[in-house]
């Protein structure tokens, strides 16, 4: 376990970052205020700029959460026009872009040229390129930090020392682009990754909770951090068990002044597994979807097949429920659900099923 900062040192770090990164001083190219594309919450549905019901069907563009911290670049999968063309050829209409908190905030633990304004400008440019091409975008807090060291993995919960600052900055960056959504935290797993009252309270309220060993930022605090930036974009809120459970989401839903919240859930088939790898539990998701939009922000098969994906996407399509596959990367699909054999868009064994689902007429 890493040593905690002293209270004085931590206060100094936060104070310095607050001056450097307060929303009014973030040096980023503004999102295009003329973008017509948008996504909003209306009742229990996502709707587009015309008010029509909107189902997000897409992929996760993995890489920006780890490449900068590992010192290999700003992205892993190419962030290019060719990538967008390949995604659209698959039938993608939305892209989730996982991010690194320390790279965004500019930690000196990250190599120069891969942090701070360089990283933020690159992300802003990629997101704006995606939305200009007609794709909605979800940005998240994927790899996050607890102390002053760089984020090299996902944590159990966001930390109060950095997460509100991060979301005020991200909110200020994209508040003029209504096609961008905010996923507050990738996969929380407090209270030993259990679906308990302790876990749900920790996720909503934060504090010294859930056996995390540090002061956490709850989703209520982060919703207000986003709104304090002036952003009214849709916000995705997860539950416990690595964002795998929605059992008490309605009970512990944060209060949003803009009333623009959606539920985030991640669903993986065996052998990777998750709480909803059993279709008999999917009615739990239906209960939430009757009251609020549900976005399956990650899903996949980790055995190079698409058996589970076929069941899940068919079920989601009958409900108009949004889903985004993990992930738009070339890799060993037995190690993680990688969609590609190459960056020309050739699907893996798993990707074949996702591409077929995305291209299917609804």
Provide a quick synopsis of the model.
The chain has helices at 7-21, 67-70, 81-90, 101-105, 116-132, 163-174, 190-193, 197-205, 219-228, 240-243, 282-289, 307-319, 349-359, and strands at 40-42, 45-47, 57-60, 94-97, 136-140, 180-183, 206-207, 216-217, 235-238, 261-268, 294-300, 322-325. With 362 residues, the chain is an alpha/beta fold. The strands form 3 sheets. An 8-stranded parallel barrel has the order 3-4-5-6-9-10-11-12, surrounded by 4 helices.
Please characterize this protein's 3D structure:
Strands 3-4-5-6-9-10-11-12 form an 8-stranded parallel barrel, surrounded by 4 helices. Helix 6 packs parallel to helix 9 and helix 12 (307-319) packs parallel to helix 13. The chain is of the alpha/beta class and 362 residues long. It is built from 13 helices and 12 strands. A hairpin with an 8-residue loop joins strand 7 and strand 8.
Percent helix range: 25-40%
**Euclidean distance between termini CA atoms:** 49 Å
What spatial form do the alpha-carbon principal axes imply? globular
The number of strands is 12
